[in-house]
Hints:
Blueprint: H1 15-28, E1 34-35, H2 47-58, H3 71-85, E2 94-97, H4 100-111, E3 117-122, H5 127-134, E4 138-143, H6 154-160, E5 165-171, H7 183-194, E6 200-204, H8 220-223, E7 231-236, E8 249-252, H9 255-266, H10 274-285, H11 289-310, E9 325-326, H12 347-358, E10 360-361, E11 363-364, E12 374-377, H13 382-398
Parallel strand pairs: 1-10, 3-4, 3-5, 5-6, 6-7
Antiparallel strand pairs: 2-8, 7-8, 9-12, 11-12
Amino acid sequence: MSFLSATLDRVKxxxxxxxxxxxxxxxxxxxxxxxxxxxxxxxxxxxxIKAAGxxxxxxxxxxxxxxxxxxxxxxxxxxxFKRENGLxxxxxxxxxxxxxxxxxxxxxxxxxxxxDEVIIPxxxxxxxxxxxxxxxxxxxxxxxPIETGFRMTPEQLEAAITxxxxxxxxxxxxxxxxxGYTRAQLKALTDVLMRHPHVWVMTDDxxxxxxxxxxxxxxxxxxxxxxxxxxxxxxxxxxxxAMTGWRIGYxxxxxxLISAMRKIQSQSTSNPCSISQWAAVEALNGPQDFIxxxxxxxxxxxxxxxxxxxxxxxxxxxxxxxxxYVYPSIKGCIGKTTPSGVKITDxxxxxxxLLEEHGVAVVFGAAFGLSPNFRVSYATSDAALKEACTxxxxxCASLR
Length: 400
C-alpha cells in the first residue's frame, strides 16, 4: 500500500509549469530555446507599487494580519468592485488569498461534496479540473471549438446542467484563448442560469483589464443582478499589475461562503503576505495609467504573433479579445511528418517536436481540454516573439 494519499491519483501536475521548467532546463544545458509557455507579464511591477511594499517593510508592517486579508485591503477591494464593476460588497463579503488560485481552491473545498458537478468550458485554465477533483467534485467539460470563437453557447450550458451541478466556472477574457464574452453573449448565458437556481457561478476575472480593440469587459453579477447572491466574483493583481510573484488574489461573494473560505484558509496558509497586501492596496487605489500603456505593447505583440502564425502552413490563429495568449489550431498539420520522421498525430507530439527540432516551447492544447491546438504566451519581447514565430513557420513548412 502506498504511503501517499489516493487523492493524488485524481490529479496531474500543471502542464504549463512543466513546459516552463523543461525550457529552463534546456536553456541551462546550452540549448537555444525560446519559452512561450509562461503565463505572466514580462513587465516589472510599477514603481509606486514596489515603493508601497518597501514602505510597509520599513514601517514594520510585517506581522500577521486577519486570516483572509487585512481591513485596508478589503476596503480597497470593495471600492474597486463598486468603481469598476458596479458591485456592492462589504468587507465581510471579501476574501483575500495567496494568489487567485487559492481563492478558487478554497471556494471549491468549502462547497463541493462527492458527486457534485462543476461545469468547465474548454479550453480552460489547466488548474480548474484538477482543483475540482481535489475537492471531491466531478468536472463536466464543455468543449467550445474554434467555430464558436472558443465561447460556450447558451444551448451548451443548458445541456450540461443536471440536478448535481453546483458551479459553473467562467473565465473572460480567457486563458488560454484570449476570447471574451460581450455583454449580450454573457446575458444569454446568465438567462440560462436564472432558470436553474441551484447552480452557482465562479468567475475568474483575472484578465479583466487586459482587453483590446474596444472589447468591454463585464462580469456575470454585473450583467444579471439576480445572480448576485450565488456568484463568487474572483480577481487579483497578478496580471494587469505585473504582480505574479506577490501572490494576491481576492473575491467578493455571499457572507456564508466567504466565512467558509476563511475557515479553510485559517487552517491552511492563514494570511497572505502582509507586505504584498500593502502593495496590493496601492495597486488598487493608486495610479492606473500604466495599464493602458502596457496594453499597447500587448496589442502590438498580439498582432505580430497572429499575423505570423496565420502565415504558417497548416495553422489557423484567431484574433483574441484580451489576455496575452493566442490559441492556434494545428488541424492542417495533423498527419504530416517532420524531417526527422516524427508523425504529427496530435498537438502534444507537435509541441514536443517543435521544441526538440526548433527550440520553441509552447503548451499543447490537450492540457487545456481542446485539441488540436497549442497556446502561445505573447508576454515577452517583440524580438523573441518574431524569432519564435519565424521558427514555427519554418517547422510547419518542413512538415510533409
